[in-house]
Design a protein that fits this description.
This protein is mostly helical. It has one domain: Up-down Bundle (Ferritin). Helix content is about 65%, strand content about 0%. The longest helix is centred in the C-terminal third of the chain and has 31 residues. The chain is elongated, with a radius of gyration of 18 Å. The two termini are about 15 Å apart. The relative contact order is 0.17.
Length: about 190
């Protein structure tokens, strides 16, 4: 059986399926929802920026949204490859009430910290049930989260320095728009 997602190329022997602990299966399914919710939060941030002069920040948030979707798909494919049942839940409406670019990026950092904690919690369960394959996957995500938090913190520091200076904000916006797409769909545990 061949995996059908391009970012998770694994060939499994259909006669030997790795079983997944039920508690871990439930939590991994919840993480699909967490990642899709995160994607939706970033899409709301992108939409807010689309209504401002900050096209670069809109692009940054749109890229983040796509990366979070890729993370959800990575969890989905992992469950499918482990022959576990995928159970999708509704995604809550995200907050879309932002005041300034600084406010948006502060909420972005809070979102990343929340996801990091969720992954840490998953890792603990994988460790408790001695599921080393899941731990490997989750280590990739933890490294990704460290990178995401640093990137957002760096932008927050620069936004604080810029204050309300329009010229400085436009420079940061231009830089944000040229930010390369991150590693949301490639590398590590694939």
């Amino acid at each position: 059986m061949r995996s059908h997602c391009w970012f998770y190329p694994v060939t499994l022997n259909p006669t030997h399926v790795m079983t997944l602990n039920p508690k871990l299966t439930k939590l991994l399914n919840e993480q699909i929802n967490n990642e899709m919710s995160s994607s939706y939060v970033y899409l709301a941030m992108a939409a807010w920026f689309e209504q401002t002069p900050y096209a670069g920040f809109a692009q940054w948030m749109f890229t983040q949204s796509r990366e979070e979707t890729m993370h959800a798909l990575k969890f989905y494919q992992y469950l499918a490859d482990r022959d576990a049942k995928v159970e999708l839940e509704p995604i809550a409406k995200p907050n879309a009430d932002f005041k300034t670019p600084l406010d948006v990026f502060q909420q972005s950092l809070q979102q990343e910290e929340k996801v990091t904690q969720q992954i840490n919690d998953l890792y603990e369960v994988a460790e408790q049930v001695k599921d080393h394959a899941s731990k490997n996957l989750l280590l990739w995500f933890l490294n990704e989260q460290m990178e995401e938090e640093k990137t957002v913190r760096d932008m927050l520091d620069r936004l604080k320095l810029a204050g309300n200076d329009p010229a400085s904000l436009l420079v940061l916006d231009r830089e944000a728009g040229s930010r390369p797409s991150g590693g949301g769909g490639s590398g590590g545990a694939e």
